[in-house]
Amino acid sequence: MKIGILQAGHAPDEMRPTTKNYGALCAVLLGGYGFEFDMFSVVDEQFPKDELQADAWLITGSRHGVYEDLPFLKPLKALILRIVAAKKPLVGICFGHQIIAQTMGGHVEKFSGGWNIGLTEYQFEGQTVRISAWHQDQVVTLPPNARCTGSSAHCNYAFLEYEDAIFSLQAHPEFNNAFIQGLIQFRGQKTVPQKLLQTAQSKLSNVNSNDILAEKIATFFKLEAG
Questions:
Q1: Residue ranges in the chain assigned as alpha helix (H)
Q2: Longest Cα separation, the chain
Q3: How confident is the model at residue 147, as a pLDDT?
Q4: Which residues are catalytic?
Q5: Do the beta carbons of residue 66 and residue 13 sit within 8 Å?
Q6: 188 — phi, psi (to 5°)?
């Protein structure tokens, strides 16, 4: 089964040689499930020839906002609609979660409560999971055909499933401790309040639930692809 990874952003330049980029991290997360991967850096306007080039699709995180005036956003939204029309399974992570929601009729904006970064506790499908977050934007209005399957104290619509073979989440199950450490050092210092950075730093050694979400995404792809 081939998964097309739509890379919507880049990790900081200083990090990439050691921590990998967003798309590669997603491939690592889903390694061991028998998938093949094709990578498309859509943030650099490198798009697949069509929505049939993969059996399922995943949209990564990004530092960009879905409401920004950027050249890759309009064709990415058009591709999302074609993927949905073709009934191809689609997963979105962080920015991917947000742009799918915006494309499908929801609304995303900068959250009035500010940033959420570091290991975060969510209630998801009847269990508590701990996944790293790194966002200020979030979905504030649900798309018509979506249902919420998980949330946190900071994010009401943290996990969504749609009638159209879509699963998305606001947090980052592909992020390991080294990646969060890099974001704290190379991206957070200029944008995130110091107290939040210190709290995220203090949780780096805590156990996460990344494996639970990897299993969820892999199972979702296989079931929805038939």
A1: 16-19, 22-29, 73-85, 95-103, 177-183, 189-191, 194-202, 210-225
A2: 47
A3: 97
A4: 94, 172, 174
A5: no
A6: -70, -30
